[in-house]
Every structure is written in C-alpha cells, then in structure tokens.
Request: fold
Amino acid sequence: MAATSISQPRHFKEWIEVIQAQDELEEDEQIDEKPREVLGQVRQLTEEVRQDPQHPKVFAVDGLDKSWFCQKGSITFKRADEQQQNFTLEVSFVGSELSRFGDDYADLSRAEQQATINWLLMIGVAREDYQMTGYKDCKSSGFYFLLHCNYRRTAWRVIGCPHNGHLEDVHGNKFTSNPQDGGQFEFPAAEDQHMSVRYEDGEVWLVDGQEKLVRGLWDVGEEAPQATLPSGRYIPAILTPNCPSHFHAEVRA
Reply:
C-alpha cells in the first residue's frame, strides 16, 4: 500500500515559521550582545544597577521590598592592587533627607518615613571567575554579610550568607546566620556611616569605620565552620536588594 502524506494546516505552517524567525532573532541578539560598559573600579555591573557616569563610585537601584532581602542586581570590583590578594571594600549610604537614622528618622512624617531608602545591602567577596547574574548570586558566588536596618533605623542586623555558618566577634562570641533565628549580631546605624568588608589573609571581616566587628565562620565542607575561605582568588562584591538604595562604594588596598 502506497504511503500517504499528511498535509499540515496553513495556520500550523505559519506558526512554525514565526517560531523559527524568533529563534533566529534570539541567536542574532546573542551574537551581537556586548558586555555592559562599566567605569572606574567596577569589573561587572548587572543591568538592574545604575552607575553615576559623573561619579563612578556612586550606585543606585530601585525596588519595593524593605522587609527582607530579595536580590536585584550585582556589582563586582577590581582589587585596588591586583598584585595583592587583600583588599577593603568600603560602602556608605547617600540620600540626605531620604536616608535618615535614629531620632532624625523618628521626627519625620509618616509620608517621609515611607519614602525613606537604604534598608538593605549585601557586601562581601566573590570568586574571581564567577559571572554574576543579579539573581541568587549569594548562594554560589562567594561569601557575604547581609546588612538589614531595623524598623526604627537605629541598628544594623547582620547575618552571613550562605546562611549555614556563623559570625564571630573580636571577643570570640558567636552569632547565628540563620535568618529565622533571634540573637543576630547588631551594631548602631547612623548617617554618614562608613562600613567595610575587609578580606585579609583569607578571612572576611565586617568593619565599622576602623573597628573590626565580626568575621565570617563559613561552612566549607569541613567538620566545623572555618574562618579561612577555600583557596582561590577573590574580588570585592556587592549584591543589591529589591529596595530603593543609593550608595557610594570604593575599593582600597
């Protein structure tokens, strides 16, 4: 019996042609795609983050969620001295009347408090060979401190990320990195505050001004969390939140 061919409906053929055309367009876009232009000390900047072209150390991101960290963007930086592995990444929030703390925040009207920015930020170190996506980078790219301002804007609560380690202060006291637990590390929040991540001899420290606060004890597959990171090359990194944020960031040796 001779084989018979099954004819395809006209609309089916048109649909296939549209899909093929879209695939070809996407391939062309991937081929023509160019890395985003960055300025100054920046190594990589995802599309969610804006860099001020007149002041390349100033960055901003928009968003809606002040209650918890949901990543919306990433920035990595060059080391200040590429011959040295140690570095300090210093950040300070900007925004003047939109970024008050403590009593100055309490004196604002409800509408002004609602408009307040700078509630969250994640700062730390990333593996040099990791390509940031702007989404859930904290789970695989490196080691970070999550800063979350309390509702009165009097203190920063801090946990480590990934969350399966701990924080340890200069006196040896340990603090949880589980976001669901109480007893998280806190330190005072203030306007014009300069906070830093210091990568020093394989350890990651959170610094307020010139004062070392806590270091990360990271779960890296050993019997107990370790202060020293796995061997490798690391670079300064910031993960931005889905929350209005405006900050200055600078890398020092």
Observations:
- The two ends are 82 Å apart (CA to CA).
- The CA atoms of residues 102 and 152 lie 6 Å apart.
- Helices lie at 10-32, 102-106, 110-114.
- Residues 1-33 have pLDDT under 50 and may be disordered.
